[in-house]
Every structure is written in C-alpha cells, then in structure tokens.
Amino acid sequence: MIWENRSKRILGVVGLLSLMLGCTTPQECSTRTPQAYAPPYWGGDSSASRSYQSISMKKPYCASDIVPVVAKETEDSTPTQQLTLQGTLQYALTQNPQLMAFREQHGVAAAGVVIAKTYPFNPIYQGTLLQAKNSANPVDNSFFNGHQITWEVQLFRQQKFRQQQAFAALTRTDWEIATQELTVAVNSIRAFDAYLYRKGKLAVSEEFLRLNQKSVEQIKDLVEQGKLKSGDLMVARAEVNDVQAQVNLNRTALITAKRDYYRALGIPEGSVEPVGTLERGVPAGQVEQFLAAAQELRPDRFARLAAVAEAEAEYLFQSADRFGNPQVGPVYEYDDARTRFLGAKVQFPIPVLNRKPGERLQALARRSLALAGVRQVEIEISQDVRLAVQRLAEAENWAENYRKEILPALRKSLSDSELLFEQGQGGVDVLRLLDVRRKLLRAQDGYLDALLAYTSALADLAQAVGDPALAMQPAALIKPDEPGKGEKK
C-alpha cells in the first residue's frame, strides 16, 4: 500500500522545503533547474507531471540567493538583515515557531507506528500454592501447587490492520505538515508583498510631500515678486498639509505591515528588512494544466486520501476484532497424591451478545466522512484554480493599464504643466498644477494597488496549485525600446 514505503513519505514531507532551498553549491546554480514539489505517490511519467513542466520556473535557484546577509547598520549600530523573497521563505520554513511546533506531530504519529508494531498482549502467569493442614486422612503431599501461563492470540490478523491504520495515520500527519508548510510559505509571500506595498506607498507620499514643499517655496517667491496672489500660497500650503496626513497614515500602516512580516517569519525582535520588488513574472500555462498540477501537488488532497486509508484500516480491524481473541497456554498441577498433571488451557469469548456493531458503524461513518473530504478538496481545487487564474488575468491587465497608459500620460501632463507654469503662460495656475500632481499621486497609489492585487492573485494561484514557486517568478527583463516599459530615451 501507499503508506508502506517510509522513504517516500519522508521525501514528501521535505519536498516543499527542498523546493525553497534549491541547489546547495554555487557550481550547481548555473545548470540546475528547481524541481517541482513532488508527493510520494507520484508516477514520474504521469500526464499531470508532464503538463506541469510547462508552468514550472525556468530560472535556477542558488543557495546564495536565500541566505540572509548583513547589508547595512542602523544609527544605533544594530545590524540590519535584508531578506529577498526566497530568503524570506527559507527563514519562515525553518524558524517559524508555529510550524516547528506543528512538525512535532510527526513524532507522535511515528510513535503510534511503534505501538502498532508491538504485540499488544503480554503472557499472563497464574499460580496456586496450597498447604494441607489438619487433614482427617494422611496425604502424601501436603503442599499442592498449580501453574499456568495463558497468552491472548490474535487469530484474525488484527495486528496487520492495526499497523496499516498506524502507517496511514503517519502518512496523513506528514501530509498535514506539508499543508501547513505550504500555508506558511504563501503567508510569508503575502507578508513580504504587503511590506513592500506599504513601503512603496510611503515613498510615493514622501516624494510628493517634498515636491509640494518645494512648490510652496517657489510660490512664496512669486507672491513676493507680485506675480501670484497670496491665495495661491494658501492653497499650496493646504495641499502640503493634506499630503503630510497621508505620510503619517502610511508610516503607521508600514509599522503594521512590518509586524505582520515578523509574525509570518517567526521573528521575536530584531532588525530585518525585506528587499525586492512587486514586479513578478506571469506563470505560463492554461487552466487545465494548473488543475492537473494541483491534483498532484496539493498536500491537503493527499492528507484526505490518507485519511480514507486510515478509516478503511480501522473498519477492517473492527471487523476482525468483533469475535474476540482466544487465550491459550500450558497448565501444570502437582496434587496431594503426588500426581502430576500437564496439559493446555484454552479460553475464548462466545460472540453472541456483542459483535461490535457500533464500532464497525463508526468506522464506516469515518470512512464515508473521509471520502466526502476528498471530494470536497477536489471541488475546492477546481474552484480555487479557476478563480485564481481569472483574478490573475484581471490584475495583470489592471497593472499593465497603469504601466503603459495612465502613468506615462500623467507624467507628461505634469511635466508640461510645470513648464507652462514656470514660463508664466496663461491657462495654468497653481490650482491646475496641484490638481495634476494630485492625480499623478493617486495614479501611483493606484499602480501600487494594482501590483498588490497582482501579487495577491499569484499567491492565490500558488496556494491553489500547491506550489509557492508560482508566486516567486521574477519579472521578465524590460527591453529599453519597448514602449511604456523602459526608461525615457
């Protein structure tokens, strides 16, 4: 059966962590492609395995990419660790205390296998020692003694079914641990992206605060020269106060995002800062390919399948154990006439009043419940994958609209408005200039919102398929001559 190969189970548990760690030596980084997370039940030539090859990552991992390095020091000489996205996942999978505690369940399940392999019944010794006193008739032996040893024997292969149930429970526990690892990995990606999102929001608001403060100084000089009215200065200062409020709000939100990031990694305290970008590559593949990959990658599905095997083994055990077990063993007696008796004793229950119908019904109900859980997970896989692909497509279009159309148009409008305002040409006053700048600020905020929605959709797809690598693909290199993406020539 599937749970009898212990080496495969161990590989299944550490599969997700191995995917995050990638290669181990710098020499391997140039040639090795990361392998997809492979459950122990996989067949190497399955159609779903071949389908998944087209959507797996092509960029090789290197161990140096995920090792936290000390990049800088703060004012109080406290070293600051800068973690990339891969470093964040590696840290979370190895240091998260909730995950470390959850992994201890493997030891409990493994101990259950040891219990199942141990014979449950010990031999029972029973001895009788009697001394004759004040006997009316003389006896040859005044000290009567009898001895017997009985042992409960399992005749209906209960030991085999008990071991099958324990192995299935161990397999289920290992897959539940893999499910928790997947959850921690995806949550750490979400926390990483949320921190970068809040940091980007703060950077945009601080930049516009600096520009508005500079505009206030310029307008103040123009008012003193008599070129502008004092009302224009009041409007500019009001805009500075409005942006200052947004800066304070974004600083508070950044602290909250940092707390969530620390919690995802399991960092009690310290100075750790994620570094990276919200720009990610689009995973290649169709919905059917993602569905086929999810059927072979989702650890919760395999946990439910193992629960079915566990319930089946429990039912077989209850069915085999409903007749009870006989007790057999040798018997020896030495009576008062110095006669020795040597024989055997057999004792067995008569299964008339109780054949464990309730226990068997419970086992059948648990098996039906486990089968229903498998169907539920398969339906959820289909729903999660399809909706994640749809959301990813919409979020990608949203971000591309900002990147190619909205932001370039607003930057050009702001540049032209500032030029006309500095030249003193009519039609462009302070209110119009501030309005264009405010729209650009909102557009940059909207672009960050679109990027966060895009990375969230990638995380949803990674959770649905069961492969965090889908949310970690680097963005394609932007060609300088590609319109709307490269730098200005």
Jot down its keywords.
489 residues, alpha+beta, four-stranded antiparallel sheet, 10% strand, disordered C terminus
Summarize this structure briefly:
By secondary structure, the protein is an alpha+beta fold. It is built from 13 helices and seven strands.
Descriptive overview:
Residues 1-77 and 477-489 have low confidence and may be disordered. It is built from 13 helices and seven strands. A hairpin with a 5-residue loop joins strand 6 and strand 7. It has helices at residues 6-13, 15-21, 26-29, 47-53, 85-95, 97-103, 105-117, 158-224, 230-265, 287-297, 299-320, 357-423, 430-465, and strands at 69-73, 79-83, 124-131, 143-152, 272-274, 327-334, 340-347. It has a four-stranded antiparallel β-sheet with strand order 3-4-6-7, with no helix packed on it. A three-stranded mixed β-sheet has the order 1-2-5. Helix 1 runs parallel beside helix 8 and helix 7 (105-117) runs antiparallel to helix 8. The protein has a single domain, classed as Outer membrane efflux proteins (OEP). It is an alpha+beta fold. The radius of gyration is 36 Å and the shape is elongated.
